[in-house]
Amino acid sequence: MKLSCFAKKKVNCLQLLLEQFDNELSRKVNEVVNEIRRQRCSYLRLRLCRRGEPSGDFFRSFLVEDKAPGVFSYVEFLVHVYRQIQSKMT
């Protein structure tokens, strides 16, 4: 499949190929990916996750500063730890 597909809900993110097209968005996306690849001698395969899909939810749960359903955000975690420390000191 190609990024030029407009039926986003029908795109299988696991089968998506990053191709270069003659437009500004395609050039910018490819530049970002190529810069990441240039800076690292080895890199994992790029995976796209759509919001609401299980793979996207799983990935989001590992983002430190983003809040995921049922878990603390990083800031909330720090506040929780701070309160725990304060309660033990009093």
UniProtKB/TrEMBL annotation:
Domain of life: Eukaryota
One Gene Ontology cellular component annotation held by this UniProt entry: COPII vesicle coat
Any single biological process term in GO: COPII-coated vesicle cargo loading
MF terms in GO: SNARE binding; zinc ion binding
Protein name: Uncharacterized protein
